[in-house]
Design goal:
The protein is α/β, with parallel strands linked by helices and about 400 residues long. It has helices at about 15-30, 50-60, 70-75, 80-90, 110-120, 125-135, 140-150, 155-160, 160-175, 200-210, 215-220, 225-230, 245-255, 255-260, 270-275, 285-290, 295-310, 315-320, 335-345, 360-375, 385-390, and strands at about 5-10, 30-40, 65-70, 100-105, 180-185, 325-330, 350, 395. The two termini are about 35 Å apart.
Length: about 400
């Protein structure tokens, strides 16, 4: 039995994601497909538009046999930690043969060369990275520009979000005791584009939802995914602005030394955050005040979420990789896959949250889910503790989400 794995956010699930699953099955010839999906918060540090169970159901409707949760400790971190968590989780299962991802560069050989160059960081690359950093660029931008110069590859290829993640996936995969083979599905649409159509980015769909252009959003999604989104309704869509007051209260109440212990805070950024949080009237205004060439908006957004969730470096240090594989949902026909994983996995396969009640990584997960609940208006979704009350998705056609 050949098993393929995908790492995703599905925020929300759209036609491009359906195409990726379809092509993964076609190119790999896999018999089983596992998706490792972020939960309540995304890699940019923002609450996902839809709850994780709805998004998992969308993935299964499109062909995923099993959806596992990427712990928030990795899901809402920079690209290297996101990749480490996703690839590490798939690798720990002991039976995933192929890792599939979308990328603007479909040449696997070129991607491997790029990843190897980054991993080894020869003196010339290091020199150029430092030169770009001295020019005031953020580290991701500096590294991408330097790699473009060293390998003579168009810089727009390297600095696209999917290529950045692809290179991190490859580096993380190379460190596994049993590396997976790679399957690259060429991405054709712009990750940041807000242009709507049958194939549109998740960013464009979220923008359309915010503007109330629901017909355009649904048109860019598979029919079943659109139906699930309609069932959730607008009161079940997360609005990051709902956390504004809580965020400002939290940051204003933290001491500078406490902010300094948040992941990704360095170079005196804690003093800038403390000062600006006392002046800002909203999260958007705070991020605008903090933004500069050295700090990307994604990094700053993540730091805000770390503060809200009480995530500091001590927890990061305790978990170099995922320590469990929590099931969000699976197809009834995939029960043999679960038995195989239980026999081969080096981490615990979790079907009940009670198995993780005292796990510190899962405690963070629970806080993330509960924080997400405050971003929606639907009273049923605002209840705390859903990680314990929401049933795992099985025979999903007959299951109604709580």
């Amino acid at each position: 039995m050949r098993t393929a794995g995908i790492i995703a956010e599905y925020n929300p699930f759209h036609n491009g994601h359906a195409y990726h699953i379809e092509q993964t099955k076609k190119l790999t010839g896999c018999d089983r497909l596992i998706v490792v999906m972020s939960g309540a918060f995304t890699q940019r540090g923002e609450p996902a538009l839809l709850d994780k169970w709805t998004r998992a159901k969308m993935a299964m409707e499109a062909g995923a046999d099993l959806v596992l949760e990427l712990p928030a400790l990795f899901a809402m971190r920079p690209a290297d930690r996101f990749a480490l968590g996703g690839v590490g989780l798939l690798g720990s299962l002991g039976l995933v043969d192929m890792l599939s991802f979308g990328c603007e560069i479909a040449d696997v050989s070129l991607l491997k060369i790029m990843a190897q160059t980054l991993d080894e960081e020869p003196p010339e690359l290091s020199r150029r990275i430092h030169a770009h950093l001295s020019a005031g660029k953020s580290f991701p931008r500096a590294r991408g520009d330097a790699l473009s110069e060293v390998l003579d590859v168009p810089v727009e290829w390297i600095n696209s979000p999917n290529t950045v993640l692809a290179l991190e996936y490859i580096q993380a995969n190379n460190r596994l005791p049993r590396p997976m083979s790679l399957c690259v599905v060429r991405r054709t649409n712009d990750y940041h584009s807000l242009e709507m159509g049958e194939v549109a980015s998740a960013s464009a769909i979220r923008d359309a939802v915010r503007k109330g252009n629901m017909d355009a959003a649904y048109a860019a999604m598979p029919e079943k995914a659109a139906q699930l989104m309609q069932q959730v309704g607008v009161d079940g869509f997360a609005d990051p602005a709902a956390l504004d007051n809580l965020l400002l209260y939290r940051l204003r109440g933290l001491e500078t030394e406490q902010i300094a212990r948040l992941p990704d805070v360095s170079e005196g950024l804690e003093m800038r955050i403390k000062s600006k949080s006392n002046q800002a009237a909203s999260r958007t205004q705070l991020l605008s005040m903090l933004k500069c060439k050295r700090y990307t908006m994604a990094r700053l957004t993540r730091i805000c979420s770390y503060a809200l969730l009480g995530l500091d470096r001590s927890l990061v240090d305790q978990y170099p990789g995922p320590s469990y594989a929590r099931i969000l949902g699976f197809k009834d026909s995939a029960r043999p896959l679960l038995r195989d994983i239980a026999a081969t996995s080096s981490v615990e396969l979790v079907s009940s949250p009670m198995q993780l009640e005292k796990d510190k990584c899962f405690m963070l997960e629970r806080r993330a889910t509960d924080l997400w609940s405050l971003c929606v208006k639907d009273p049923a979704l605002r209840r705390a503790g859903r990680d314990f009350t929401q049933k795992m998705l099985v025979d999903y056609d007959q299951l109604k989400l709580d």
